[in-house]
């Protein structure tokens, strides 16, 4: 059942219906003609092959009909696309922050939540960003999808038309926990939205080191609460002894200032035993020495 959850859902559904209808037309038409030829010109009736001469009318017909059908598909597809790229000036703006493997939504007033809550029948522009790799913001019920690219802000807009909750998925493979990168969109009345946004606290100031860690997507592999992700947790890491492999030889090191800096600038030099090589990129030239010091200061604080 098709539901028009946004102002664009119907246009996208119509474009797909046209494409599917034309595809069925070709499937049935070509199959029918093929079966007709197989029966009409079978060997038992025509043991000797006869050369069929050119037919200008036939050539023109089977050129113009596919052209018309292809242009019809283009028209409906482009019409649905063009309307989505014309952004209203009075729309509400929400920033979508993606990182391995979570979504977060920042509203005016520096308020942030893990769920996208929107008032019904009000235009909203989503400013899409990524802190690590390419993700893709996809709401199946809205029939819309847009990539979140590191270092770039993409945009999409729509008007929610139907109250309810809808899934947000990532449609671009982004690593080990890609399939778990989910969130919800909740469309509510204007009064319910106003009450919700008023009760939502503004983002509290966080240590600079933590901001640097989040900005560079480190929390996608390293947790902050001791839980196991791709690599070791940052909690309690500083000052801890760790078994590493250096040039193929195992030895124990203590996590100190030098080790943290080496791990950030030369991640494949001292690899924690059991972890694969080449997973972490070098942040040399990305994170300055001063920022490394801020990260170390933060790591010391989360014992």
Word description of this protein:
- The chain has 303 residues and is of the alpha+beta class.
- Strand 6 and strand 7 form a beta hairpin.
- The model has no long low-confidence stretch (mean pLDDT 86).
- The chain has helices spanning 9-40, 56-84, 190-199, 208-215, 257-265, 289-301, and strands spanning 92-99, 102-107, 111-113, 116-119, 124-130, 135-139, 144-148, 154-158, 164-170, 182-188, 241-246, 249-254, 271-272.
- The protein contains six helices and 13 strands.
- The chain folds into three domains: 9-84, Helix Hairpins; 92-199, Immunoglobulin-like (Sandwich); 208-301, Cytochrome c-like domain (Cytochrome Bc1 Complex, Chain D, domain 2, Orthogonal Bundle), CATH 1.10.760.10.
- Helix 1 runs antiparallel to helix 2 and helix 5 packs across helix 6.
- The strands form three sheets. The protein has a five-stranded mixed β-sheet, with no helix packed on it. A five-stranded mixed β-sheet has the order 4-10-9-6-7, with helices on one face. It has a three-stranded antiparallel β-sheet with strand order 12-11-13, with no helix packed on it.
